[in-house]
């Protein structure tokens, strides 16, 4: 069954209307946040938080795809964050938002660098992350944050 594009747009409108800044700053129903240090071990922590949260929300069928997307988004945030010490108390933050019938996964970081997919090089060790995000999610994009930085997000349609 094809997803209703209007439903996707409505989910994104609601998410963007609330704003990633507010969703990151204060608790909202159907959201989970997790502050992460700019270190490689944060990828595993983000995957675990994602799996635990989705299982609690009854979305266990999405766990593998969502964990893969979270891995790529957090890896990109860690890898491309220039001089992590310069950002002090502004960690990378994982945000999971459940808006029936969608799940939005966002990873916020203090870098203003625009996420841009690279031309795929299938023998290189790096550079395929955003292609993986695009392949496993229904939509992806990024939104600037008012305080600086950005939230890179991926949207999944969840069967009721």
Automatic annotation (TrEMBL):
GO terms for molecular function: protein serine/threonine kinase activity. InterPro entries: Anti-sigma-factor_SerPK (IPR050267), HATPase_C_sf (IPR036890), HATPase_dom (IPR003594). Residues 38-153 form the Histidine kinase/HSP90-like ATPase domain. Gene3D superfamilies: Histidine kinase-like ATPase, C-terminal domain. Keywords: Kinase, Serine/threonine-protein kinase, Transferase. It holds the Pfam family HATPase_c_2. The keyword Metal-binding does not apply. The keyword Kinase applies. This is Histidine kinase-like protein.
């Amino acid at each position: 069954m094809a997803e209703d594009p209007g439903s996707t747009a409505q989910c994104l409108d609601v998410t963007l209307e609330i704003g990633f800044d507010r969703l990151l700053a204060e608790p909202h129903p159907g959201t989970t946040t997790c502050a992460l240090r700019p270190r490689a071990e944060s990828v595993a922590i983000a995957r675990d938080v994602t799996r635990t949260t989705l299982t609690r929300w009854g979305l266990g069928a999405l766990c593998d795809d969502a964990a893969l997307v979270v891995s790529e988004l957090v890896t990109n945030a860690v890898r491309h964050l220039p001089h992590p010490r310069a950002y002090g108390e502004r960690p990378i933050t994982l945000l999971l938002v459940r808006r029936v019938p969608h799940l939005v996964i966002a990873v916020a970081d203090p870098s203003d660098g625009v996420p841009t997919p690279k031309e795929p090089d299938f023998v290189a060790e790096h550079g395929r992350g955003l292609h993986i995000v695009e392949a496993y999610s229904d939509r992806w994009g990024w939104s600037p944050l008012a305080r600086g930085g950005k939230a890179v997000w991926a949207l999944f349609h969840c069967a009721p």
